[in-house]
Amino acid sequence: MSDAPAPEPDRVPGFPHPRETPRVVGQDEAMAEFVASARSQRLHHAWLLTGPRGTGKATLAWSMARWLLSGAESDDLSVPNDDSVARRILAQSEQGLHSVRRGADDKTGRLRAEITVEEIRKLLAFYHMSATEGGRRIAIIDAADELNTNAANALLKMLEEPPQGAMLLLIAHQPARLLPTIRSRCRTLRLNPLTPEAMAEAMAPLDVEGDPVRLAALADGSVGEALRLAGQDGLAVYQAIVDLFGALPRMDRGRAAALADRASARPGADGDPFDLVVTLLDRFLTRAARTGLMGAPLPEAARGEAEALTRISPDDRAARIWAAAQAELSARARRGRAVNLDPGALVMDMLVTLAQAPGAAEA
């Protein structure tokens, strides 16, 4: 039997887990709403935390659980580090808290693609086993939009008849994927993208490689995305994309081939290179469309980005062209993945197609 730690799908590789993050940054409205509800003595038994990925939903959920279980009275959900509940949560030994997430396949050891009904059965066992101890019992589901059909139906039954003293904190990046009946039984807390100031504050204590200003610009208000980009050398990949499009209407085949080669590398512990390249291509096209409407975004996410974007997207007509190209690129990536096309060949085909777009030809 392997002694390797179990994989954690709710952790950005190389950075602290949300349970290890002592405070929530940039989500004061959501915190205030939850604290007011708790103090009103009418605390709902199920909360749905939504908003863009990486904006602090998991950190908020763990902070809510820690605050409630410790009995703290702070307005910002903070709990002293020497609090016994806080120490037990860090040690993953708090009996009143249970985490539901994608489990590992018993045969391969790899993380499953979905949260299965077995994980919801473990949740039921947690509620039943801890019921005799009394007190509040909290479960965090990260992410609820990863529940498969059987798991979602089992969770719905629990929401319809919640155990005494039980609370559910559901994290959802795409709440539309949840059953409407699940959403209707939860009180929603919507988190917004972080401001540049909040991004800087959240990233300050972390050992992040790369220019924090450019990471924040590229991550579009998501600390989690900034950390993922840093871990995968995303700034260098984005710089390569900017350099490639900055040379339009001439397509530099060498640079395009290098980007395609990068996309074809095998996925590692820090992520999938193909997903990274496609995500950053998508982001570049989105920023190009915005440039045609509102001017080049500042600060720049790469050297020469503003000049390249302004040249290929000077007006609202170009903005519409690049917005359509972005939608087509996303659809093409999904189709290619579905039929297992070679990632490198798929990216090369995308780049050639984009270079032939009307906006590119007129650059």
| SS content category | alpha/beta
Largest sheet: 5 strands, parallel
Side-by-side strand order of the widest sheet:
2-3-4-1-5
Level of helix content? 40-55%
Strand content: 5-15%
- Overall average residue pLDDT: 91
CATH superfamily of the largest domain: P-loop containing nucleotide triphosphate hydrolases
Secondary-structure element series: HEHHEHEHEHEHHHHHHHHHH
Q: CATH first level of the largest domain: which class?
A: Alpha Beta
Q: Report Rg.
A: 22 Å
List the defining traits of the structure above:
globular; 5 strands; alpha/beta; single chain; 5-stranded parallel sheet; 16 helices; 363 residues; 2 domains; Rossmann fold
What is the element layout, followed by pairings?
Layout: H1 28-39, E1 46-50, H2 57-70, H3 84-90, E2 97-100, H4 117-131, E3 137-142, H5 149-160, E4 166-172, H6 180-184, E5 187-190, H7 196-203, H8 212-219, H9 223-231, H10 234-246, H11 253-263, H12 273-294, H13 305-312, H14 316-338, H15 343-355, H16 358-361
Parallel strand pairs: 1-4, 1-5, 2-3, 3-4
Helix pairs in contact: 4-5, 7-8, 8-9, 10-12, 10-13, 11-12, 11-15, 12-14, 14-15
Characterization of the model:
- This protein has helices at residues 28-39, 57-70, 84-90, 117-131, 149-160, 180-184, 196-203, 212-219, 223-231, 234-246, 253-263, 273-294, 305-312, 316-338, 343-355, 358-361; strands at residues 46-50, 97-100, 137-142, 166-172, 187-190.
- The chain is an alpha/beta fold.
- The chain folds into 2 domains: 18-190, Rossmann fold (3-Layer(aba) Sandwich), CATH 3.40.50; 232-361.
- Helix 14 (316-338) runs antiparallel to helix 15 (343-355).
- The chain starts with 27 loop residues before the first helix and ends with a helix.
